[in-house]
Design a protein that fits this description.
- The structure is a single chain.
- The chain has about 210 residues and is α+β, with helices and mostly antiparallel strands.
- It has two domains: about 60 residues, no CATH class; about 130 residues, Nucleoside Triphosphate Pyrophosphohydrolase, CATH 3.90.79.10.
- Helix content is about 25%, strand content about 40%.
- The chain is built from four helices and ten strands.
- The strands form two sheets. Strands 4, 5, 6, 7, 8, 9 and 10 form a seven-stranded mixed β-sheet that branches. A three-stranded antiparallel β-sheet has the order 1-2-3, with no helix packed on it.
- A hairpin with a 3-residue loop joins strand 1 and strand 2.
- The N and C termini lie far apart (about 55 Å).
- GO terms for molecular function: ADP-sugar diphosphatase activity.
- Its EC number is 3.6.1.-.
- This is ADP compounds hydrolase NudE.
- InterPro entries: NUDIX_hydrolase-like_dom_sf (IPR015797), NUDIX_hydrolase_CS (IPR020084), NUDIX_hydrolase_dom (IPR000086).
């Protein structure tokens, strides 16, 4: 009994510690320096002061655009459309979802419709925003808005890809297997797929 009480006390202390982490104020940005810049990225150094007085210098990668979308396109309740494309970061072809940046004059849903036409050759009669994902937030400023695309029909629109993407129809039931095998390892795509499956199971009927 005493052992269980100690365990409960430790668990409660750990929970209070974790809650406290969420409640802390953000550090004060004392100065921001531009270290390097390319046509697509900026590397910045942020001089920070934390609430306990500690000072640190953190570096981050800032992109030229921050508004991006990732699409979970479902032609029917049991399948999702995925794409294979070259990813220079890992120097290989990966399995992922249609995605792209939003133009300055586009809403997220408008950008999602355009990217769907450009990359998959389809348009959606129904588009639903599911939420937002960050990408390596400790170092990057980038955010993706996840959009569920349903009621699909053909659409032709030229995109900016150097070569046509391979589009494949994947059963939703195979997603865990493809993740486990390592074929699907793009973290944003995995998170977006589970967001879509959760939404469809909680009232957003994909039919």
């Amino acid at each position: 009994m005493a052992g269980r009480q100690v365990q409960r006390t430790v668990q409660a202390s750990t929970l209070r510690h974790r809650v406290g982490l969420h409640m802390r104020n953000c550090p004060t940005i004392l100065k921001t320096e531009l270290l390097a810049e390319s046509s697509h990225f900026q590397i910045e150094a942020l001089h920070l002061q934390f609430s306990n007085g500690q000072r640190r210098i953190y570096e981050r990668l800032r992109g030229t655009g921050y508004r991006s979308v990732m699409l979970v396109a479902m032609p029917d309740p049991e399948h999702v459309l995925m794409v294979r494309e070259y990813a220079v970061g890992v120097e290989g072809t990966i399995l992922g979802l249609p995605k792209g940046g939003a133009e300055a004059d586009e809403s997220y849903l408008q950008a999602a419709q355009r990217e769907l036409c450009e990359e998959v050759g389809l348009r959606a009669a129904r588009l639903t925003e599911l939420g937002e994902l960050t990408l390596a937030p400790g170092h990057l400023c980038h955010r993706y808005r996840v959009v569920l695309a349903q009621d699909l029909s053909p659409c032709a629109l030229d995109g900016d890809e150097p070569e046509p993407l391979e589009c494949i129809k994947v059963p939703l039931a195979q997603i865990p297997e493809r993740v486990a095998s390592g074929e699907l390892h793009e973290a944003r795509a995995i998170a977006a797929l589970f967001m879509a499956m959760g939404a469809c199971g909680s009232g957003l009927d994909p039919r």
